[in-house]
């Protein structure tokens, strides 16, 4: 900034000019949202009921319930079920349940279809169960 002698003038830099959008500036679509987080899922809304299919899955898969909710993972109680669980560990079962709930869902299906988001949907199921 310079000021002339007694003239009261000031030199300013030119204001920033609007830059045209580039591919980097394009907002991600619902299906490829890289910032998707499990906390963005709303389990009970007018457009989405995630709790009912979750409860239905748990009711129909008692062996999964044993893995998810039992304190004793080593001894499988045969009186509960003779079926095998959908996974060996909780995280595997969460992924199977997430697929059941979200794969064909009109609200979250496009986001679920992105392979990188599928583990996030598994985390969402885990969060809902705790």
Protein traits:
130 residues; mainly alpha; 5 helices; globular
What order do the helices and strands come in, and which of them pair?
Elements: H1 51-60, H2 62-69, H3 90-102, H4 109-113, H5 118-129
Characterization of the model:
The chain is mostly helical. It has a domain at 44-129. 37% of the residues lie in helices and 0% in strands. The protein has five helices and no strands. The protein has helices spanning 51-60, 62-69, 90-102, 109-113, 118-129. Helix 3 (90-102) crosses helix 5. Mean pLDDT is 76; it is low at 18-32.
Task: Give a concise summary.
The protein has 130 residues and is mainly α. It has helices spanning 51-60, 62-69, 90-102, 109-113, 118-129. The N and C termini lie far apart (60 Å).
The N- to C-terminal Cα distance equals 60 Å
Q: Name the structural class.
A: mainly alpha
- The averaged pLDDT comes out at 76
The total of beta strands comes to: 0
Gross geometry: globular
Major sheet: none
- Rg, Å, rounded: 26 Å
Give the fraction of residues assigned to helices.
Answer: 25-40%
Element string (H = helix, E = strand)? HHHHH
In terms of per-residue confidence, which ranges show pLDDT below 50 for 5 or more consecutive residues? 18-32
How much of the sequence lies in strands comes to under 5%
């Amino acid at each position: 900034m310079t000021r002339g002698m007694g003239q009261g003038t000031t030199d300013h830099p030119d204001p920033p000019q609007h830059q045209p959008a580039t591919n980097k500036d394009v907002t991600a679509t619902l299906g490829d949202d890289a910032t998707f987080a499990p906390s963005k899922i709303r389990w009970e809304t007018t457009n989405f009921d995630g709790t009912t299919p979750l409860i239905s899955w748990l009711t129909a898969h008692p062996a999964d319930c044993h893995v998810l909710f039992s304190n004793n993972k080593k001894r499988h109680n045969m009186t509960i079920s003779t079926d095998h669980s959908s996974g060996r560990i909780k995280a595997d079962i969460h992924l199977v349940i997430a697929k059941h709930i979200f794969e064909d869902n009109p609200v979250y299906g496009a986001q679920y279809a992105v392979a990188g988001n599928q583990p996030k949907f598994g985390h969402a199921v885990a969060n809902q169960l705790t």
